[in-house]
Amino acid sequence: MEAKSDCDASNQTLYKIYAAIMIVIFILALPLNASVLHLFIFKLKFWKSNSNNIFLFNLVLADILLLFCLPIKAHNFIQGERRSTNDTVCKAMLFMLFLNRGASIAFLTVTSIDRYFNVVHPGRKNLLKALKKSPQISILIWLLLLPLTIPTMLKNFDCCNTTWALTHQSYSDNDVVDSLREVVFFTQIVIPFIILVYCTVRIVNRLRKKTIGDKTKLKRAVFLVTTVMVVFSFCFLPCTIARMVLLITRVQNASEPNQDKAAVAFDGLMVLSYMDCLMDPLVYCFCSTKFKALYLSSYFPFLMKDPQHHEIRSI
Question: What range does the record give for the signal peptide (predicted)?
Answer without folding.
Answer: none
